[in-house]
Amino acid sequence: MSETVLQLKDATIYQGESMVLANVNFEMQKGDFVYLIGKTGSGKSSFMKTLYGDLELTKGKGSIVNFNLNGLKEKDIPFLRRKLGIVFQDFKLLPDRTIKQNLAFVLKATGWTDKGKIALRIDEVLDKVAMKTKGFKFPHELSGGEQQRVAIARALLNDPELILADEPTGNLDPQTSIEVMELLLDINKNGNTILMATHDYALLLKYPSKTLKCDENKVFEVVQRKS
């Protein structure tokens, strides 16, 4: 039985007063890996922001990890985000804390209290992203690729039902982009559902998967040609 983790029906996405995307119909099942592509300014970020509660969905219907996006209350947004893993282009690590302290901060903020369990969970996620030996370092002591690995580890902390990766390779060189991409695909193979916004078409060609495109205020599925 497939399980729907994300569904939009005739959804129209606004940024302030201006309409960004109209009549979006889209569904994602547990275990999917989907790309979201489009030029800069085509609405990819607005699409993502609507999914994690940064922009309100006022027209059409939407649900994500059993939360209704219509009329999502301010007080429910932290609970929604606990069920999502969000990976940004610019890492968003706290510069004055070590990697382990960065991850502990997130766990404590989401209700974890047991120090032993916190330490164990941090080791588990750092191990998944091959960063277990770097936990004592500060963000500025790591390369961009290593910082993005930590950001992915952070997204995995609360065992999310859906990972939203917004241009996760945007600030990385091509070789590091491939390493981060392969890490995300490994995580997907382990059962995590991933929606990844990207403008890196080389990755799409190298790792084809279901692809949505934002263009001229619409979102539609792109059929990739088999080479």
TrEMBL record:
SMART domains: AAA (SM00382). Keywords: ATP-binding, Nucleotide-binding. One of its GO terms (molecular function) is ATP binding. SUPFAM superfamilies: P-loop containing nucleoside triphosphate hydrolases. It comes from the Bacteria. Pfam families: ABC_tran. The keyword Transit peptide does not apply. Residues 6-225 form the ABC transporter domain. This is ATP-binding cassette domain-containing protein. It comes from Winogradskyella immobilis.
